Amino acid sequence: IILPLEWFPLNKPSAGDYFHMAYNVITPFLLLKLIERSPKTLPRSMIYVSIIMFVMGASIHLVGDSVNHRLIFSGYQHHLSVRENPIIKNLKPETLIDSFELLYYYDEYLGHSMWYIPFFLILFIYFTGCFTPVEEESRMPVAALLLMGPSSLYYWYLVTEGQIFILYIFTFFAMMALVMHQKRKGLVLDSNGLFLFYSFIITLLLIALWVAWLWNDNILRKKYPGVIYIPEPWAFYTLHMNNLH
After folding, report:
1. pTM for the full model?
2. Has the keyword Ion transport been applied to this entry (predicted)?
């Protein structure tokens, strides 16, 4: 969106795609390192399957997002459903619309599930090893406090854009239950555990502010019906900020 279109033609990967490719390689490696730090872990075969599913889901999402973001330059509007988009309505033959709906399914549903379920599972396993009986180890350094803002903003984007609030909130509740359980044993969160736990708390506050801000947006309400109303940032962008690109 920001860089000149001449640098990355629509039929070639964009700058964001290359960053996403790097993410698909670097993040699984970091997740394995997190698992190594936890004294409690899953069987090795289950860890490998989780990492494989993560890479598959993130890769599916990469392809789907790459195509969807290019459609913006052709007038695609993320705040509308696939069939309601003007550029999709005019497709001939009409069976092509089914293909775009399939792309949307792979991107928004299958890809997100295969990506985020292993991701949050591994984060929780890591969190189970972040407890200590020593109070001094529960103090976060200044660098961690400074990084908490970007970390929370990242999780906010994952939850809102990925539409995974249920997965996030269940993970958060599991973390709170574990903290209370370990407290009875005289254990407290160390600095790593505090960083992750506080990041999740700030993320919840950011989500609440985001929902409150867009609560009366009738167009987004139509796109996201139901009890859980959490609009995607991309839908907000194409609805209110599309003139910027």
Report:
1. 0.85
2. no
